[in-house]
């Protein structure tokens, strides 16, 4: 938090006059927007924190509630939420600053009316057929997913699904009870829409069947809601405006590519690599399907995009870069007979977003100049001093990032007896760190105490430290009504991550915890780190066995020893 940040000093809402008044300790330029489902006026105050202002108040019949929250570390948010069935005309909302620190928000009288909802699934979704009954005695079968103009629609057949949404800061977990996955479902589907990087589908459990959909967020803290009907489940962002802002796509591309052909024998030809839209994105266009992957190349300080199964068109070159281009250099080369590599070197102050797959033949890399980016500030954490240490004093030592999940306002999963994931994983992580340090391994921690750290700073700390390994430590959850689901899971994304995952996972099983396997997933910290990276789920806080274990300090120590031993074994074998 910059020293000159202001605070909200006071606020009040006059329900007869429909007027909100607030004051801040330093000048602010609010931004306001109207959001639907439910209808609410959202006022963001950049460069402002909540201070000690009261955080919410129930109001009455037309306006249900006024809530204050910290939208991100630099922006306070005031939400005026209308009661169900009431609407206001956004044209009649007046936000006025008497002084830079004294503001009035005047609402028109809320009226009963129709909210412009768009809950209906995409018109292209075929109607669910009641005749197709799911197998295995499950009531519901999850068939496929479509992108709608507002969010995602997960089509189901059979009974209406019953879903349970778990809102994490990095990913949102939606569990479908009594549901089996259709064999047609792609386990790991890149979508890059509405701030969601990918959707991961898994059959979490078979008796009774539970299907799990994980929405991996490109930007942490986005909230989604789910509503189920007999034809499927609609997933909508709570902050629709933000989701649209994060959405880089032209609106006519409403279908997720049903499948991506990995290597069909024939190569796609890359026809253009160009800066577009006022140099805000780098487009890669091919004449056939491409599925580029990307990662930061720490050695060259460039962002490397690899397109397998592709060749360069003749006479193709990178984009023309002007003197004040946000990019310093774009290098394009045919790395092997069937692989094209594009290296992008950003200018100082430029941030690159996540590569978006716009269609099967088109990908785009968002480019943000930092003065307009909605990005996360570097955290002023103990972790960042460790980062500098890691760069300067590694002296040939192996550097391992230990990343305790969640923290601060984000508790992660909450389980039996109210145990919170953020506390359990911090306890385990701190012990892992000291065990590794005792063995001469240098450790960079993304947090050492109970604080909120966004996803990108976790990745940045690892990249800046030029770390050799990245180990994210979490605990799992499912509905509290499923105490029988217990065990450890280990996630990886790259092949190098898989090798690390195997060693640590085997070691974790030595604690006696049940084995729920090693799985691949596009979690943010796994996809965006350039070193071998794994994400450990050290048990279920909702599980009867695991919750008892995870709440026990002696077990946490055993788990920490197991993880540290696994890491140390991998280090001995590979460095
Ligand atoms: Zn977690």
Would you give an account of this structure?
The protein is α+β, with helices and mostly antiparallel strands. It folds into four domains: 6-112, Immunoglobulin-like; 140-246, Immunoglobulin-like; 268-369, Immunoglobulin-like, CATH 2.60.40.3500; 382-574, Zn-dependent exopeptidases (Aminopeptidase), CATH 3.40.630. Strands 23, 24, 27, 30, 31 and 32 form a six-stranded mixed β-sheet that branches. Strands 34-33-35-38-36-37 form a six-stranded mixed β-sheet, sandwiched between helices. A five-stranded mixed β-sheet has the order 5-1-2-11-10, with no helix packed on it. The radius of gyration is 25 Å and the shape is globular. It binds zinc ion. The site of zinc ion has 6 residues, from loops.
User: What structural category arises from helix and sheet content?
Assistant: alpha+beta
> What does the radius of gyration come to?
25 Å
Helix proportion? 10-25%
- What is the C-level CATH assignment of the largest domain? Alpha Beta
Give the mean pLDDT: 80
Helix tally equals: 8
Bound molecules: zinc ion
How many domains is the backbone divided into? 4
How would you sum up the global shape?
A: globular
Distance between the termini: 38 Å
Number of strands: 38
Bin the strand percentage: 35-45%
What is the CATH topology assignment of the largest domain? Aminopeptidase
- Level-2 CATH architecture of the largest domain: 3-Layer(aba) Sandwich
The CATH homologous superfamily of the largest domain is called: Zn-dependent exopeptidases
Main pleated-sheet profile? 6 strands, mixed
Low-confidence stretches: 115-136, 248-264, 370-393
